[in-house]
Amino acid sequence: MIRVYEVRVVDEDGSQLGVMRTADALQLAQERGLDLVEVAPLANPPVSRLLDFGQYKYELTKREKEAKRKQRSVTFKEVRLKPKIGIGDFDTKVRRAIEFLEEGDRVKISVQFRGRELTHPQIGRDLLDKFAEQIKEHGVVERPPLLEGKSMHISVASTHKPKVHEPTPSATAKAHARPADGAIATIDAPQEAKNEAPPAPPARPRPEPDNGAASTGV
Predict the structure, then answer these.
(1) What is the pTM of this model?
(2) Which CATH number among 3.10.20.80, 3.40.1190.10, 3.40.50.720, 3.40.190.10 corresponds to the domain 6-70?
(3) List of residues 6+ apart from 123 with CB closer than 8 A
């Protein structure tokens, strides 16, 4: 409920109707079959708008759902290397990092040292510099290589926009599919029942032997 004495009124088309008494604004809204909604309560005087509140809430909820559906949070992925990594494995790691960056994610590339490998940190630094050169078209290195404990790493920020994964039409159609009018929905039997052999037909009665004829067992 609007408790102030007067408000600045905007009509349903966005046109300014000026400042008027709240009671007059409410009467105008009723005459047009609309609601008077306060949209800027901190203004002086507060701003109210003539609109269909039910339709307004529906459109607002629809926009929020659409924005939430398209929203994608950026995640932090990690690619681990070894000082003695082979060329093939190195190229595979590079391709994997590029995939992460193309999705819009940040990537941490780390080199794990073992034993005496810690005495040659320059090997890890060179490896990270080479890696950064391979992915420079897809990301920007946020910090130079730094040795922390038994690992050395760099962080790379993506230069791509986060991708939005839209549901496929086939999946959407399956999710909303319903039996047609007059059709009968069937439910598959459990797998165990499908694998069971069908019951044997009942034994047919043997014909009675003719009078005077001898019956023989089979």
Answers:
(1) 0.44
(2) 3.10.20.80
(3) 83, 117
